[in-house]
Design a protein that fits this description.
This protein has 2 domains: 2-114 and 283-309, Quinone Oxidoreductase, Chain A, domain 1; 123-257, Quinone Oxidoreductase, Chain A, domain 1. Helix content is 31%, strand content 23%. It contains 9 helices and 15 strands. Strands 3, 4, 5, 6, 7, 14 and 15 form a 7-stranded mixed sheet that branches. It has a 6-stranded parallel sheet with strand order 10-9-8-11-12-13, with helices on both faces. The radius of gyration is 19 Å and the shape is globular. The termini are close together. The structure holds NADP nicotinamide-adenine-dinucleotide phosphate. The site of NADP nicotinamide-adenine-dinucleotide phosphate (NAP) has 28 residues, from α1, α2 and α3.
Length: 311
């Protein structure tokens, strides 16, 4: 099969398009003919070698954590999914930017999404829902799903990002009042989501106090920023603040660090909201597999979600 691969760590130019061995569906997994795979921040970090000491890859490696496509092999022990189903989901640490990928967590793609949107939803929605579930449990352990967010005020740092905008959509759907940080030119799309937008950086607590004079009940740190202590101060309760980035800060302050899990339940919940038009992943750039290097370079520039399409 054709795949994007890198034989050494480095800048986006290390990505080449070449023949690679086809993976096979393993027990509990499905294999898809990939239509699209998204570029997540972790793909860039892994390819650049920034994580090689904690998460070493066997090189050559295929980048990509998530993908969408058509099931073409069903692994032993899988029920409820058939060859021909259109799904989106999560592969391993690095293996989806290719003609075929094995997913260990997946859900039917909503008919309301393009294949690029379905690819963009995998890691982002699983991370956002895992983080919001943790916040919901911190606010009210007796409730399930996101019920505890109803009527609460939630601050999301990084609300314009893939994870943050998914979390914003899910929280708004759950009945939360959401304040989200983003650079000024992304405030329009956030307002369309039903989010009260504000900028990040110095003065955040004053801007948030203007928007929520009654206070903030919980916060989600979904941006590569050093603002976790500010979020804890704004909420006034470290246990009602979750980060998906800052493990060290979370341990020091008493907040939780949450990671995405390869859990099909999370993806099915995201898909259900997608089908109802309540979650529409934003895709800023779509590039073909042949332009995988350019796709990674664009993703490094932070100009919005990049998706690689696989013809
Ligand atoms: N733990 C996990 O399992 C897990 C899973 C997925 C992602 N993550 C991490 O979560 C973060 C977000 O991922 P993503 O896919 O949503 O990335 P993304 O789409 O690139 O979004 C990044 C977000 O961060 C904001 N941002 C950038 N610099 C900032 C700063 N200095 N202060 C405040 N906000 C800033 C951006 O805002 P503007 O674009 O408006 O400037 C944008 O909203 C990444 O660091 C990623 O590594 C963790």
């Amino acid at each position: 099969m054709l795949a994007a691969r890198f034989h050494r760590y480095g800048n986006p130019d290390v990505l080449v398009i070449e023949q690679a061995p086809e993976p096979e569906a393993t027990p509990g997994s499905v294999r898809i003919r990939v239509q699209a795979a998204s570029v997540n921040p972790i793909d860039v970090l892994l390819r650049a070698g920034h994580l090689h000491q904690v998460l070493p890859l066997n090189l050559p490696a295929v980048p990509g954590r998530d993908a969408a496509g058509v099931v073409d092999q069903v692994g032993p022990g899988v029920s409820g999914t058939s060859v021909g189903d259109v799904v989106f989901g999560l592969g391993g640490l690095a293996d989806t930017t290719a003609e075929h990928a094995v997913l260990t967590a997946w859900a039917p793609a909503p008919s309301t999404w393009t294949s690029a949107q379905a690819a963009a939803a995998g890691l982002a929605s699983a991370t956002a829902l895992a983080a919001l579930d943790a916040l919901g449990q911190a606010l009210d352990p007796s409730t399930s799903d996101l019920d505890a967010l109803a009527g609460r005020t939630l601050l999301i740092e990084g609300a314009s990002g893939a994870v943050g905008s998914a979390a914003a959509a899910f929280a708004v759907a759950a009945g939360a009042r959401v304040i989200g940080t983003a650079r000024q030119d992304k405030h329009g799309p956030l307002a369309e989501l039903g989010v009260l937008p504000t900028t990040y950086g110095p003065g955040l607590s004053e801007r948030v106090a203007d928007l929520a004079p009654q206070g903030v009940d919980a916060a989600l740190h979904a941006a590569p920023s050093s603002s976790l202590p500010d979020l804890v101060e704004i909420v006034g309760n470290a246990s009602a603040v979750v980060t998906v980035i800052d493990a060290e800060g979370a341990a020091r302050l008493g907040s939780a660090k949450v990671d995405a899990r390869n859990d099909s339940t999370l993806l099915r919940r995201a898909a259900a909201l997608g089908q109802r038009g309540l979650y529409s992943p934003r895709v800023a750039h779509e590039l073909p597999l042949a332009a995988a290097s350019r796709a990674h370079a664009l993703a490094e520039g932070g100009s919005g979600k990049v998706v690689i399409t696989v013809p």
